[in-house]
Write a structure and sequence with these properties.
The complex is a heterodimer of chains A (329) and B (190). Chain A is of the alpha+beta class. Chain A folds into 2 domains: 185 residues, no CATH class; 122 residues, no CATH class. Chain A is built from 8 helices and 12 strands. In chain A, a hairpin with a 3-residue loop joins strand 4 and strand 5. In chain A, helix 5 crosses helix 8. The radius of gyration of chain A is 21 Å and the shape is globular. Chain B is globular and about 45 Å long. Chain B has one domain. In chain B, the strands form 2 sheets. Chain B has a 3-stranded antiparallel sheet with strand order 3-4-5, with no helix packed on it. In chain B, helix 1 crosses helix 2, helix 2 packs across helix 6 and helix 4 packs across helix 6. Classes of the chains: A alpha+beta (329), B alpha+beta (190).
């Protein structure tokens, strides 16, 4: 076997060292979450987590900016960290996403019952879960679970995007809340944290160009809860269901969602539901049926939830009914 | 060929396959076939037929999963330490997880793995979820063991599966245990 020149070996070793990220801290308090320059944010379309209350923060390395030229795929500087805290009666866990030179890495910290400390969970997660007040267990995801959702399309940061942070927030979205204290797109621009955001989005904040308020909210919900896997870019592109809204494509994005779902035969029926969306007939729509199912074989999303989102089901049900009305001449 | 020479041949084949560049599909496919044979994939994924010496693999339907025409009656209720039951073809299994049917691994686009990418297959074996993201893979599929293969070996297995004749066979969907199916009615949202 050919031997590398000693100088080349040294250079490779130094390069590897420079690229290697420091070990993930054992305690949440050592991750930088409590630094003064951490910014709170909240996406307008939230991922359903069985009703858990969630808070989120981001921290960029000092003096850096986000490359926002592609509004659907922001590029974050190395060293960016984001956190999401889950509360169900008490703080349960805080997840962290970090951009390193080698790519994104995932970690989660489990809070002690007295709330005094949050400790790094094993990379395989805690499938037996931790107890929550009022009974029940909360499953702590493993790294593979994190990757299942965050690597289902090219942008692993799901809640911190131009659409999610729009100041034109969709108050018809399930579980919508007004973000008083959190940063939105205009704040980020004013703080100089975005580079290259398209001028059109600087003039008017982004919104999904839907035909009605219900459709806007339904598409937003599906974008955040389903489109992260069901899109035309990621590993599940072959399924042909595209629920991810792309700001860069304008109304064509909504059209593509409709074309991939309306009256399209599902790969797998659920009971007597055989098409993805049957206009006017929620109960015959596989998408609606699987949103409402929680047996492991049918449920959607397939992980991260054990209870259906009743508010979202009501919204999607109204939207499917309205699709039939729109077809009537 | 003596057992010793067989062993040497097998080892040589695998080392050759490991050393082979990615542009040598024949070696990769051979390696995949070798892993599939030794890994016991046929045990459950290939229907059996009765031959002169007893049950044998149905070569017309290699790795095409549980035959959709085969009637399956409700599984017997098991007691004590007995936990799982299977049919004669070993393509349908009953246990605490419900009833599962082995998948069609041939490249048929509608009913097999024809629409899957190599990465979908690797993700499935690594995570125990369909395409790495969907529903859990059910027992008795030993994905935990298969998932310990290297990327190179999983790619070889997938490459071999791609060379199989496509068999159109829509395997039945699994059924959950009775206690779960009672809760699984569609959720009205009014």
């Amino acid at each position: 076997m050919a031997r590398l020149h000693p100088l080349l070996s040294l250079l490779l070793a130094l390069a590897a060292q420079a690229g290697a990220a420091a070990p993930i801290p054992e305690h949440l308090r050592d991750t930088g979450l409590y630094a003064a320059d951490v910014l709170p944010f909240s996406p307008q379309y939230a991922l359903w987590s069985d009703g858990a209350e969630k808070r989120r923060w981001i921290r960029l390395p000092r003096g850096t900016r986000i490359d926002a030229r592609d509004p659907d795929r922001w590029v974050f500087p190395v060293g960016t960290r984001l956190w999401k805290e889950f509360t169900l009666g008490r703080r349960i866990e805080t997840r962290m996403l970090e951009r390193t030179r080698a790519g994104w890495r995932f970690a989660t910290y489990v809070w002690t019952e007295d709330g005094a400390d949050a400790v790094l969970a094993p990379s395989e997660g805690l499938s037996a879960g931790v107890s929550v007040p009022g009974g029940g267990r909360w499953t702590i995801p493993g790294t593979a679970d994190c990757r299942a959702c965050h690597e289902g399309q090219p942008n692993p940061v799901l809640g911190f995007t131009a659409l999610q942070l729009s100041s034109d927030r969709d108050l018809g979205a399930p579980h919508a809340r007004i973000a008083h204290a959190e940063v939105h797109l205009e704040d980020l621009l004013a703080r100089g944290l975005l580079r290259g955001l398209p001028a059109a989005l600087q003039r008017s904040p982004p919104r999904i160009p839907a035909a009605s308020a219900d459709e806007r909210a339904a598409l937003g919900y599906l974008h955040a809860n389903c489109g992260i896997c069901h899109n035309r870019h990621g590993p599940l592109a072959g399924i042909g269901l595209d629920l991810l809204q792309a700001l860069s494509e304008g109304p064509a994005s909504v059209e593509r969602t409709r074309a991939s779902a309306l009256a399209v035969r599902a790969l797998r029926p659920v009971g007597d539901a055989r098409v993805r969306l049957d206009p006017g007939k929620p109960e015959h729509s596989v998408l609606f049926r699987r949103m409402g199912a929680r047996d492991p074989l049918d449920q959607m999303p397939p992980l991260g939830t054990e209870k259906p989102d009743r508010d979202a089901l009501a919204l999607v049900e109204r939207w499917i009914h309205s699709l039939a009305d729109r077809r009537t001449p | 060929m003596t057992p010793k020479t067989t062993l040497i041949a097998a080892l040589s084949m695998s080392s050759l396959a490991l050393a082979a560049p990615a542009t040598a599909p024949t070696s990769q496919v051979k390696r995949g076939e070798y892993l599939v044979n030794f890994g016991g994939c046929h045990d459950c994924h290939t229907p059996k037929k009765m031959g002169a010496k007893g049950p044998e693999l149905d070569n017309e339907r290699l790795l095409s999963g549980h035959p959709e025409q085969m009637p399956v009656t409700p599984a017997p209720a098991l007691q004590g330490p007995w936990m799982a039951a299977t049919v004669g073809t070993m393509t349908a299994w009953s246990g605490p997880w419900g009833v599962s049917y082995t998948a069609n691994l041939t490249p048929d686009r509608e009913t097999g793995l024809g629409a899957w990418t190599e990465q979908n297959f690797i993700d499935t074996m690594r995570t125990g979820r369909h395409m790495g993201r969907g529903r859990p893979i059910l027992p008795p599929m030993p994905w935990q063991m298969a998932g310990k293969l290297t990327d190179q070996d999983l790619k070889a297995v997938f490459a071999y599966l791609r060379t199989l004749p496509a068999v159109q066979n829509r395997v039945p969907q699994p059924t959950p245990p009775a206690s779960v199916s009672a809760e699984a009615a569609p959720a009205p949202a009014r």
